[in-house]
C-alpha cells in the first residue's frame, strides 16, 4: 500500500499513520490513569471486546454497539465475571451502557448496547470523546469505586442465579446417588426400585449389562454340581435298598 494519498485537486500528501488495518488508539493519559490501572482482567477484556465491535462497525455507531454474553464468553471471559466486569468498566468511566437488554425467547431477546467513552465516532468526528475516566484522580478513589461496582449485584438476578444453581445441584446429586431414585423402567414394564430384583432376573440397573467372566461362570457351575452330587448319591442308594 502506498504511503501517499491524492487530494481532489490532484496534489499528493504523505499518509500520517502506517497501520494498514483497523486499530483502537489508547492515549498515554488513559493508560497512566488510576482508573485504568486498578481494573481487573475481566473489565479489561470487556472493554477490548467492545472495541472489537466498534471496529466491526467500521468506526460507526459508537453508543449503539451490541455485544451479547455469548460474544464475551467467546472472548475468554468467564460467564460468572461478565456482569461484574461490565459494572466495573462503566463505573470507572470507560464504557456506557446506553440501552439495557433483556432475556427471553428468541424474538424478545435483546443485547446491551455500549459506548466507548474514549473513542471517536465517525458520525461525530468534531465532538471530542467524553473520557469519563478522567474524573477519577487517585488510586484509592478508583479502587473504592471498582470494589463497590463489583459488589453491587442485582438482587433479582442474584436470586434467580441461586435458584438455578440449587436446581442444578439437586439434579447432580440425584444422578450421583442412584440409591435415592427409581431406576428407569425396563422393557418388561416393571419399575425397578433399590434392592428389588426385576422379573427377568438381573440384579443391577437395567441401563448397563454386565458381562460375566467365563472363569467365574465355570467356578460357579462346579460349586453347584459339587453341592448337588451328595443328594444324587443318596437318592440312588435309597432306590437300590
List the helices and strands and how they pair.
Blueprint: E1 4-6, E2 12-14, H1 28-31, H2 34-37, H3 41-56, E3 65-67, H4 69-74, H5 82-91, E4 95-99, E5 112-116, H6 139-151, H7 155-176, H8 214-240
Antiparallel strand pairs: 1-2, 3-5, 4-5
Helix pairs in contact: 3-5, 5-6
Tell me about this structure.
The protein is mostly helical. It has a domain at 10-153. Helix content is 42%, strand content 8%. It has eight helices and five strands, in the order E-E-H-H-H-E-H-H-E-E-H-H-H. Strands 3-5-4 form a three-stranded antiparallel β-sheet. Strands 1-2 form a two-stranded antiparallel ribbon. A hairpin with a 5-residue loop joins strand 1 (4-6) and strand 2 (12-14). Helix 3 (41-56) crosses helix 5 and helix 5 (82-91) packs antiparallel against helix 6 (139-151). The longest helix has 27 residues, at 214-240. The N and C termini lie far apart (116 Å).
Strand content: 5-15%
Main beta sheet: strand number and arrangement? Answer: 3 strands, antiparallel
Strand order of the largest sheet: 3-5-4
Spans of at least 5 consecutive residues whose pLDDT stays below 50 are 181-197, 231-241
Radius of gyration: 35 Å
What is the strand tally? Answer: 5
What's the overall geometry? elongated
Structural class assignment:
mainly alpha
Number of helices: 8
The helix content, as a percent range, equals 40-55%
Distance between the termini: 116 Å
Order of helices and strands: EEHHHEHHEEHHH
Mean model confidence by pLDDT = 78
Amino acid at each position: 500500500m502506498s504511503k501517499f494519498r491524492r487530494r481532489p485537486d490532484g496534489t499528493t500528501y504523505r499518509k500520517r499513520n502506517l497501520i494498514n488495518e483497523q486499530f483502537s488508539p489508547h492515549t498515554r493519559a488513559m493508560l497512566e490513569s488510576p482508573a485504568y490501572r486498578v481494573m481487573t482482567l475481566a473489565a479489561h477484556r470487556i472493554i477490548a471486546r467492545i472495541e472489537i465491535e466498534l471496529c466491526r462497525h467500521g468506526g460507526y455507531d459508537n453508543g449503539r454497539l451490541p455485544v451479547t454474553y455469548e460474544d464475551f464468553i467467546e472472548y475468554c471471559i468467564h460467564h460468572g465475571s461478565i456482569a461484574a466486569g461490565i459494572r466495573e468498566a462503566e463505573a470507572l468511566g470507560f464504557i456506557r451502557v446506553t440501552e439495557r437488554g433483556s432475556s427471553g425467547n428468541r424474538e424478545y431477546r435483546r443485547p446491551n448496547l455500549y459506548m466507548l467513552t474514549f473513542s471517536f465516532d465517525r458520525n461525530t468526528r468534531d465532538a471530542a470523546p467524553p473520557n469519563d475516566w478522567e474524573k477519577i484522580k487517585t488510586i484509592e478513589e478508583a479502587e473504592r469505586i471498582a470494589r463497590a461496582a463489583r459488589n453491587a449485584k442485582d438482587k433479582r438476578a442474584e436470586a434467580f442465579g441461586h435458584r438455578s444453581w440449587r436446581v442444578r445441584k439437586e439434579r447432580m446429586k440425584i444422578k450421583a446417588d442412584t440409591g435415592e431414585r427409581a431406576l428407569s423402567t425396563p422393557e418388561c414394564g416393571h419399575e425397578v426400585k433399590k434392592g428389588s430384583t426385576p422379573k427377568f432376573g438381573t440384579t443391577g440397573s437395567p441401563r448397563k449389562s454386565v458381562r460375566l467372566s467365563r472363569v467365574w461362570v465355570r467356578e460357579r457351575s462346579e460349586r453347584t454340581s459339587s453341592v448337588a452330587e451328595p443328594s444324587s448319591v443318596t437318592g440312588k442308594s435309597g432306590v437300590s435298598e
